[in-house]
Amino acid sequence: MNKLIIGIVVLAILGAGGYFVFINRSQTSNGKTALAQIEIKDFKHNPNRLTIKAGAEVTVANREITSHSVTSDEEGLFDTGLISKDATKAFTAPAVAGEYSFHCSAHPSMTGVLVVEE
């Protein structure tokens, strides 16, 4: 009975440790920084200010019936193109630290800022 309890405790500790290692990792196996997400809902980018590492992959999920995008104000930096309802697209954050304003190409009043850190 004691061996069973010890075995369960050991498995619980190992499982929890593995979980925290996975959650706290800052890089994926291909060398890019961990994933970040922007969700589009109620004609808003959420979050509308996202801080991320340079070169990180950002996934954008559209939860609206209407198509939306995440398009950099500075032409050519990043652009998901229009994303249809319940679809996702991804882009790579700029490699240089700074603040990058973005908007929805179909609804220019929908804006946000991508804060890129080294």
Textual characterization of the structure:
The protein has one helix at 2-24; strands at 36-41, 44-46, 49-53, 57-62, 71-72, 88-92, 98-103, 111-117. With 118 residues, it is an alpha/beta fold. It has a single domain, classed as Immunoglobulin-like. Strands 2-1-4-6 form a four-stranded mixed beta sheet, with no helix packed on it. A four-stranded mixed beta sheet has the order 3-8-7-5, with no helix packed on it. β1 (36-41) and β2 form a beta hairpin. The radius of gyration is 19 Å and the shape is extended.
Specify the structural class: alpha/beta
Q: How much of the sequence is in beta strands? A: 25-35%
Residue windows where pLDDT falls under 50 for at least 5 positions: 16-33
* The top level CATH class name: Mainly Beta
Look at the structure and give the mean pLDDT: 83
CATH architectural group: Sandwich
The number of domains is: 1
Strand-and-helix sequence, N→C?
HEEEEEEEE
**Strand order within the widest sheet?**
2-1-4-6
Radius of gyration of CA atoms, rounded to a whole number: 19 Å
CATH fold category name: Immunoglobulin-like
Biggest sheet character: 4 strands, mixed
Helix content: 10-25%
Oligomer: single chain
CATH superfamily: Cupredoxins -  blue copper proteins
Number of helices: 1
Gist of the model:
This protein has 118 residues and is of the alpha/beta class. It has one helix and eight strands.
Features:
118 residues; alpha/beta; Immunoglobulin-like; 4-stranded mixed β-sheet; 19% helix
Helix-strand blueprint:
Blueprint (H helix, E strand, L loop, with lengths): L1 H23 L11 E6 L2 E3 L2 E5 L3 E6 L8 E2 L15 E5 L5 E6 L7 E7 L1
Parallel strand pairs: 1-4, 3-8
Antiparallel strand pairs: 1-2, 4-6, 5-7, 7-8
